[in-house]
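Justification of resources, computational component.

The compute hours requested in this renewal are based largely on the per-chain cost of generating structure records like the one below. Each record pairs the submitted sequence with a full structure-token output. That output is archived, and it is also reused by downstream analysis tasks.
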Amino acid sequence: MPTGASMEERWKRIDRAFHRGEELPAVSLYKVGGFYFVLDGHHRVSVASYHGVEWIDAEVTEFGAGGGVWSDGRNRKSA
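The structure output for this chain reads:
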């Protein structure tokens, strides 16, 4: 659970939406090797984790194993 007052209020709003069964937007993740990093949706991930949810809708951008994207958006395999 977040520590700052504004962050805590945001967390609580998402928690209430979760309890009402509202559909929340997918989170955005980066996958590097076997690890996932949250780009957008930290509070949604936190609320889901707090309630023991094992799956969450996500848009995943994968990097690794010789692939990935250069900082200017070019695909590494084609560079």
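The longest strand covers residues 27-32. The CA atoms of residues 29 and 60 lie 5 Å apart.
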